[in-house]
């Protein structure tokens, strides 16, 4: 069972006429934690209060839930609610949102597109995990329709984006705040879990506006996340990718924080890409260390994402700009349709698994 006791992702759900509350996914049902555990922290409409309790509470609660589901199922059964009877909500309140650029293949592909004749990477890329601050207020849960953004497309031109794109990413959710910078070795003490992310991108708006300060309106209109937050403890870990040159001391890894996550991107129900997260150059412990290296604090509900996940092969690229090489080589769908970028009515769904555990999905339809 991919939603078994070794998975147990958290989310926020409601039944008709009732207030949202925290639950855990188990099979095709949701365990009502406030009722099952008699703990009012789970009666909140967001995971933030529980996440702020810290790593020991996360572990103990997860162990307690697993025991109840495997040993005391008769007692737990009345508190398991079928998924078709609930509505899923935004699982946590986003405090800040940071997006990184951690795939060597993705950064190289985009660099070669925009800087022909070069190796693609800018001089800083192998020395630090490049990132930017996004907009927390436009992070939305899976299923939220995505309105095609308007913006400047060039000098004297304003209108709807014609190059709307997807970005398959993995997001990391902060549970425990910090007042000062956070070293890579403290990663597990602060990060509660992971979620799937689609960081929608308007490539034409982005291309005109991003010089010299980076992404702005071409990114900030919407970022979709899965309704399920998989605890960090549930994820199998692997060694991170070799790095050259060796990172500075504050970015040196303290353990294996590569993650063997297999991602699948579908467009209108048809799989178009399978990006491998295991090949990411910068690992999440390094992202967190760099994000806070200047003394920036963490808050409960902070979200940071990996940037587009891409591999070496075309079928492993996690964005349309790469899959179609900036629109010059369209994707051919089985029904005869072609795509360079997203059209109105298109639905994008990103799914992922890790060690036999599903991370759920994040989906959105363009309107």
Please provide a written account of the structure.
This protein has helices at 33-37, 48-51, 55-71, 73-76, 104-114, 187-190, 203-209, 217-220, 284-291, 320-323, and strands spanning 10-15, 21-26, 29-32, 80-82, 86-88, 97-100, 131-133, 139-141, 150-154, 157-160, 164-165, 168-174, 191-198, 201-202, 223-225, 230-231, 237-238, 258-259, 261-267, 270-273, 303-305, 331-332, 338-339, 347-354, 357-365. It is an alpha+beta fold and 367 residues long. It has two domains: 10-88, Fumarylacetoacetase, N-terminal domain (SH3 type barrels); 97-365, Fumarylacetoacetate hydrolase, domain 2. A hairpin with a 2-residue loop joins β24 and β25. The longest helix is centred in the N-terminal third of the chain and has 17 residues, at 55-71. The chain is globular, with a radius of gyration of 20 Å. The relative contact order is 0.18. The mean pLDDT is 96.
Keywords:
367 residues; 25 strands; alpha+beta; Fumarylacetoacetate hydrolase, domain 2
Which CATH architecture of the largest domain? Alpha-Beta Complex
Provide the CATH top-level class of the largest domain.
Alpha Beta
Q: What profile does the largest beta sheet have?
A: 8 strands, mixed
Strand content: 25-35%
Shape assignment:
globular
In whole angstroms, how far apart are the ends?
Answer: 35 Å
Number of strands: 25
What name does CATH use for the topology of the largest domain? Fumarylacetoacetate hydrolase, domain 2
């Amino acid at each position: 069972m991919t939603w078994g006791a070794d998975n147990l992702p958290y989310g926020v759900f409601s039944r008709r006429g009732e207030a949202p509350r925290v639950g855990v996914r188990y099979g095709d049902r949701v365990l009502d934690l406030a009722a099952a555990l008699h703990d009012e922290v789970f009666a909140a409409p967001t995971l933030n209060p529980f996440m702020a309790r810290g790593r020991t509470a996360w572990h103990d609660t997860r162990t307690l839930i697993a025991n109840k589901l495997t040993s005391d199922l008769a007692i737990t059964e009345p508190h398991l609610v079928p998924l078709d009877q609930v509505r899923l909500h935004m699982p946590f309140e986003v405090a800040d949102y940071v997006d990184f650029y951690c795939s060597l293949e993705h950064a190289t592909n985009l660099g070669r597109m925009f800087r022909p004749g070069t190796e693609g990477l800018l001089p800083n890329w192998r020395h630090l995990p490049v990132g930017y601050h996004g907009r927390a207020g436009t992070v939305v849960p899976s299923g939220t329709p995505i309105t095609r953004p308007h913006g400047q497309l060039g000098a004297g031109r304003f209108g709807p984006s014609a190059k709307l794109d997807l970005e398959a990413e993995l997001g990391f959710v902060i549970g425990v705040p910090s007042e000062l910078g956070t070293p890579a070795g403290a990663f597990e003490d602060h990060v509660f879990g992971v979620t799937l992310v689609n960081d929608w991108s308007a490539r034409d708006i982005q291309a005109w506006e991003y010089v010299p300060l980076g992404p702005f309106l071409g990114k900030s209109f919407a970022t979709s996340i899965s309704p399920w937050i998989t605890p960090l403890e549930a994820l199998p870990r692997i060694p991170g990718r070799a790095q050259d040159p060796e990172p500075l001391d504050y970015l040196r890894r303290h353990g294996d924080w590569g993650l063997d996550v297999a991602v699948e991107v579908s467009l209108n129900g048809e799989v178009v890409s399978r990006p491998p997260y295991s090949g990411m150059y910068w690992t999440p412990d390094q992202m967190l260390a760099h994000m806070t290296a200047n003394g920036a604090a963490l808050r409960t509900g902070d979200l940071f994402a990996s940037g587009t996940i891409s591999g070496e092969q075309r079928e492993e690229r996690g964005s349309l700009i790469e899959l179609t090489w900036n629109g010059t080589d369209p994707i051919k769908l089985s029904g005869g349709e072609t795509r360079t970028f997203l059209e109105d009515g298109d639905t994008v769904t990103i799914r992922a698994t890790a060690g036999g555990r599903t991370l759920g999905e994040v989906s959105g339809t363009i309107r």
